[in-house]
Structures are given as structure tokens and as C-alpha cells.
Design goal:
The chain has 77 residues and is an alpha+beta fold. It contains 2 helices and 2 strands. The protein has a two-stranded antiparallel sheet.
Length: 77
């Protein structure tokens, strides 16, 4: 099941797949801020490149990026 996220450009949305964490926990709402989505995507892409650009399991890099950004945000607050 997919949901959509509004982007900064009117009438466009990010398509965000419905995922669950590898632990089996639900990810929660699939609606995220477009800027947050972009930051997570950039960090996840860097992790994917660092792993040698393997095929499959993009959620591994996405969840790692989310966790890393949340940890950094908590350290700054």
C-alpha cells in the first residue's frame, strides 16, 4: 500500500511505500515533510554508495539514515 506526500511544488507528491522495520515494527504514518524526505534520501543514498551500491534492501539504508538523522537532531536539541 502506498501513500503520497505533498512536495514543495503544487500538485506533486512523493510516493512513499508502506514499510515495516526489519524488527517487524510498523513505521507509522507514511506522510513526511518533503524536506525531511529529501534529507533522509540523501543520507540513505550515501550509505548505499558506501556499501558498494548493492541491489535490493533499500530499506536498510533508509532506516539507517532515519535513525542517524534523529540521533543527530536529538544531540543538537
Amino acid at each position: 500500500m502506498e501513500s503520497f506526500v505533498r512536495t514543495a511544488v503544487p500538485n506533486q507528491r512523493h510516493r512513499v511505500p508502506s514499510l515495516s522495520h526489519p524488527s517487524g515494527a510498523s513505521v507509522g504514518s507514511n506522510l513526511i515533510d518533503p524536506l525531511e524526505h529529501q534529507r533522509i534520501a540523501q543520507v540513505a543514498y550515501a550509505h548505499w554508495e558506501a556499501r558498494g551500491r548493492p541491489i535490493g534492501s533499500p530499506e536498510e539504508d533508509w532506516f539507517r539514515a532515519e535513525h542517524e538523522l534523529k540521533r543527530l537532531e536529538a544531540e543538537w536539541c
